[in-house]
């Protein structure tokens, strides 16, 4: 979990916004709120807006939505359509973790 916190929000990373602090979000079976968690290996980092629908760092909700897209907590269907489904986000997170731990090097053109 510390590595995910060190990496920051996976949505912000994917959007090219750089490091943004994150909450830990446990993915659930069926991808629905209130369902059983899939386990610690199915965990992603989301900023407070993307995760809980709460503006942060002095930003308004409008600003957060413009920067990060829809909130997973407030508009889960739209979040999945515009940002990605749970498995896509997990793939992004796992790739970021592999880079963090030095298992994979970021590709650069020669």
Automatic annotation (TrEMBL):
InterPro entries: RecA_dep_nuc. It holds the Pfam family RecA_dep_nuc. This is Uncharacterized protein. It comes from Stenotrophomonas tumulicola.
């Amino acid at each position: 979990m510390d590595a995910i916190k060190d990496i920051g929000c996976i949505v912000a990373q994917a959007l090219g916004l750089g490091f943004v602090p994150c909450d830990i979000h446990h993915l659930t079976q069926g991808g629905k709120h209130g369902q059983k968690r899939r386990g610690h290996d199915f965990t992603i980092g989301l900023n407070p807006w993307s995760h809980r629908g709460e503006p942060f760092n002095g930003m308004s909700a409008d600003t957060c939505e413009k920067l990060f897209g829809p909130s997973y907590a407030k508009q889960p269907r739209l979040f999945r359509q515009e940002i990605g489904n749970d498995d896509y986000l997990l793939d992004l997170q796992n790739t970021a973790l592999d880079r963090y731990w030095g298992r994979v090097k970021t590709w650069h053109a020669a």
